[in-house]
Structure formats: structure tokens, C-alpha cells
Amino acid sequence: MRPLIPWRSRASVWLLVPGLFGIAAYSVQFASETAVSGYWPAAFAGSAIFLAFSCAAAATAGAWEGRRYRAATAAIESSSRSSAAIVIDHLWTPLTAGVLLQLVAIVLMSRNTWGAPGGPSALVGLTFVSILFFHTCVGFTLGRWLPPVASLPLSLLASYSWLGFTWSVDYFPLRYLAGLVISDCCSVETSLDDRAPIIATAFSVLAGCSLLMLAVARSASGGRLRRLGVQIGTGSFAVVTAVSLIASAGLGPTPVVDRPQSQAICSGDRPTICLFPEQREQSRSDAVIRKAVGNLTRSGIAAQPTVRASNAPSTPATLNLIVQVRMTKADLVHSLTTSVLGDAEVASCGTEQDDAERFNDAAVANRWLIDAASNGIVAADEVASALQMDDPSVFSELRRAPLPAQAAWVTATIERLTDCSVGHIPVPSA
Q: Which of 164, 310, 333, 413 could form a disulfide with 320 if both were Cys (CB 3.0 to 4.6 A apart)?
């Protein structure tokens, strides 16, 4: 009985070994960048970074299958089997090898995400399979028309170059055709723009089919495809590429959009704290934020009635701050106090002395906010400052003043940081 996978002729089986080694080595070398905690969209889309390995294996194995197809051209022309059935027989093992390698990559990337709300995206999974299909077709086409000594290294080079080069160019639409750009998704406050995987999927499938037309030209069972396969394949590839570039023209450097605030869960009153499920279930972020806001209020700093996890600038009614999954108490206090300090940069108002004074006042206000907010939560010296003081004596002088005067100075200083019309506000005396 003929084995399901003829070992001597299925290069994809042997290419699994270096592919697995490459994925494992990359994961160990860049451990902090290849593990996402608690957010499935980021973990699943982030595993796209490993496509360099799975696509390389699929393309190289596809080139070997193209060589087999080329060697059997005479038999294929006289075969009663359809061209589609023969091509599928050659393509399924390279594609399967690539999918298996990508599954390993997904497991490694999401190892700190299991148990978090949500799950893998079916759309992104389909995109990975489509991209692997395209690279398999690239290798198969090269193997069909070139000898192994040229097709094998060229398929590997083409696969790596297509992913790596397009990811680095400033012409953003080209990035979306290759698909590696989806690895830039996302923080917990953002989500993947669905247009990115849809464009990559459509291009990969249609462009891959165009390449197959080139590969089977002059040996296909259909008369028109046998005679005009090269012209049809080349023309359709050009049209697919042009349409895909036009479709992705409106996308920016990263395929992320703000996550709908309707997905956030709000609780409490003054402040009402709105966090996404991942931020609530992985830690006690809401309790830490509520206590820190209460500390600031008791210290004399007026707080907005709503605190929300968002990248957007704060408003008079809402304090927006960054809340990552599994943040420490110190990091939460840092994020809160940085948001209270203000979203805009400290204004540069002309003279060097004035600028230095403003920056130091901002750093003093930041340190004061940290001391006030961290009370009963974490030691203040464990919380990193957003700005560094050039003249710590100003902070020492401020701390000697009555607490209401300290809070009033901090509030007034925060308001003047971006307003050059307001001059220096002296630190209150003891």
C-alpha cells in the first residue's frame, strides 16, 4: 500500500525539523517579545512574527514539490486526473507543514494568555493559512520552471524577502499584502483593524491561484489554460496586486483601531472605573485605581468622576489612563499620576531658564502626586517618576507647606505647564 506521505519525496516532512528549531530559538532569544499576557488578539496576531519560519518551510517544500511536478510533466499531460487534483496532491504537504509550524508559534506566543477572556480569532487564523498558501505557491511555481539548484534557494529567499522587505518599507499598502504587519497588534485598549487580515487573505489566495496558473501552464488538462496559462496567470496576478494595493491605501503604519468602549465594564461611583474584562480578571486593577484616586481626593486634588482605560486624551469629565494586563501596583500608580499630570508635553516658552523651571516644577508635581496616590498601596519610592527633578530642593520646600497649600500649588502648576501666558508660581511657604 502506498504510504500517505512518501517519505523520500515529501521534503515538507524533513523541513519541519529546522522550522521547529528556528521558532524555538527565536522564542528563547526574544522571550519578552514573543509572549503576550492576557490578551488574545495581541497574542494571536503577534504570532505573525513567526511567519518567517513557517512560510520559509512552506515555500521551500513547495519548490521541491514543483520539481516533482516538473519531472512528471509527461505523465501528467496524459493523465486522466484533473489538473486541480494533481496540484492539490503536490501542495497539501507543504501547506500542512507550514500550518503545523505556525500552530507551534501560536502556542508559544500565547503561553501566558491561556485562561484570559476571549480566544483565538478565526479571521486571523484564516489569514495565516492564506499567507502560507501563497508562499507554497511561490515555491511551487519556482520549482516548476527552474531546476532545484536554483528554485530551492530562490524560494527561501523570495519568502523571506517578501515578508521582511515589505514590513520595513514606508509604502504602507505593500505591508498589508504580505500580512506580517498584523504582528504589530495590539495593546489591550486597541484591537486589530479587520481590514488588515481581510486584505492579506484576499491577496494571498487570489495571487496564489494566479501563480498556480503560471505553474501548470502547458501541462494542464484544460485547453485554454494549457495555451494561455502564462498570460492569464501574469495578468491576473497584476490585477490582484493593483486592486489589493488600492484597497489598503487608506491604512496607516499599524493595523490597530481603538477598542470599542462598549466592551468595557464600568463599576462604582465617583469615580466610576471602566476597564476591559482582561484588565479586571487578571488583577485587582480597579481596586488599586479606586484607592489611589481616593488618596488624591483626600489630599486636595480634584479627580474626574470617571476613570477609563483608554489611549485617548483625558477630558474634564473623564480621566483616561493606560492599564496593561497584570500591571503591578507601582505601575498602576505611575500610570494614574502620569495621566493626572497631563497628556500634553510641557510647553517650551522661550528662555532656557523658564523652560528648565517649568520642567522642574512638572517633575516636582509628579513626585508629589506619586507620594499622595501611593499611600497605603505601595511604597512611593517603588513608583517610577515620569519626569526627573533637576532641583530636588523645590520638592523639599513644598513638603514643608500645609497640605491644602501643597495641593493648590500642584493643581495650579499642572494647569500652567502648557500655558505660556502663566508665569512661575512660587512654592508656598511653611
A: 310
